[in-house]
Amino acid sequence: MQTRYLLAIFAGALGGLHVDASAAAREDRARTFELSSTIVQEENIDFGQPGPTPGDAYAYSENLTSPDGKPVGTAGAFCTDVRIDDAARTITVNCNLTADLGDGQIAAQGLATITFGELAGTFTIPITGGSGAYSNVGGQLTVRKRDARHSRMIFQIARG
Questions:
Q1: Reported pTM
Q2: What is the CATH number of the domain that holds 135?
Q3: Contact between 55 and 47 (Cβ < 8 Å)
Q4: Which of 25, 86, 117, 146 would you label with 66, given CA atoms 20 to 30 Å apart?
């Protein structure tokens, strides 16, 4: 159960990007966008012993909106616990995320370390690519969790 809440921190990872999706990809070689995300479906999968253990997983989907609340897309992710450090009270997760913005997708993947019981926090992971209007992009995604279900995301994308 604790893993569910800890990974919910990561879940917002596609949340803080304000996007005029097609214009964003075509303008500059480097660009920053913000969206808000709200988790709409989630499932915690507790493998092995009860409680957080390596291999436990968390899947979720979220709605993405512009800062003014306009729907701009959806996102989904699958995260796996890869390290539990009881002494430091942290869990490190590896998440694969995809945001569908209508005219293309942006993919991000990376490790994030989350402190037990914290439902807010900030972390940054690499943007690994995209499709459609976002083909050949890279960069980084910074996630600022507001609570267990809501995030502000900052995508810094650049064309390769």
A1: 0.80
A2: 2.40.480.10
A3: yes
A4: 117
